[in-house]
Amino acid sequence: MSSEEPQSLRSLYEAAEEKRHALDNAFEATSPAYRSDLEAALSLYSSARDQISALALFSSNEGLEDVSTSDLPYLLLDAHVAELVQKTPNQSPDQRLEVLSKSRAAYERFLATVDSYALVQNPYDRVLERYRDDPERFAVVASNDAAARRDGKIANYRAEKALKEKLETLRRNPRYLDDGDEELVRELYLTQITFAVHSALQALDSLNREVEILAQAPRPLAPSATNAPSPEDHSYRLDQPLRRLHSLQAGPLLSKQGKPLQPFTLLGSRDQMSRDVFRSGHNLPTMSIDEYLEEERRQGNILQGGVEPKKVVDEDDMEAIDRETYKQREWDEFVDHNPKGAGNTLNRG
């Protein structure tokens, strides 16, 4: 193992990280510029991976103590690649499934690498073992009970919050800011890896849920080249309602002997029906539905008000869930200390 990588590897990795951070703050994920920057970042990470393999920075025959502090950030490479791959713009469910498959492979490479250095520690080691037993049905909280899932989400949220707070504390430490104390820097890098393990397992859970949804999504029908009307047709747009009506009726309009098989309308010209719309006997709407409802509301014909609906707690809002949990516990304690009828001083049943 080389304890000091060449400048080319450091510059490649730093350039890839700069691109990744820029993409995290991008707003137009469907723009050509976003796709170009995403491909550039993935290309830089790929080149950095080739350099790491050529230098043999990591080996299954080594322990964590054999890895230099300056090499530890490179263990995160596949985790960053997995995150970027998931951001790839796509147009169809099949394309998205392919993207998720590539992202899963990158997450698995990352977890396998850090696990070989015993960096997947409790409680994540047991979660990773469950993933390896059944990757496609894996869930971080393996329970069908709603209360257990809620408690699991709260625990995951608190673990993530604790890791973020630890990283911020290490970054603000004067020993890290002033002289870059190696012991502190190494602890910071190892905490980043632990946080990446936490995020990777959460991402694999979310990935499986998305795959389940995409598996049920309807696939687009391939258009028929022989039956599709030409956009150059003069009445292509005008005759669309008639075309859709006829497409719902099976069979030809006339038999071989010329006998009508379906009801039809004789028109003097191809766009006669469209011109009928502008005749004097054709009534056009005088207001939109929104305008009509607004007028009814102004005249007092629509009842308003009522009881405010009960707010539904978002399962992903951990702070709101905590508040609801504590509120319920306080109510349970009140009921325990104040049984029904305890305040009935007039002996009324």
From TrEMBL:
State the name under which the record lists this protein: TAP42, component of the Tor signaling pathway
Q: Which organism is it from?
A: Fusarium anthophilum
Q: Name one GO cellular component term.
A: cytosol
Q: Which molecular-function annotation in GO is an example for this chain? A: protein phosphatase 2A binding
* Pfam families assigned to the protein according to its UniProt record, in alphabetical order: TAP42 (PF04177)
Give an example GO biological process.
Answer: regulation of signal transduction
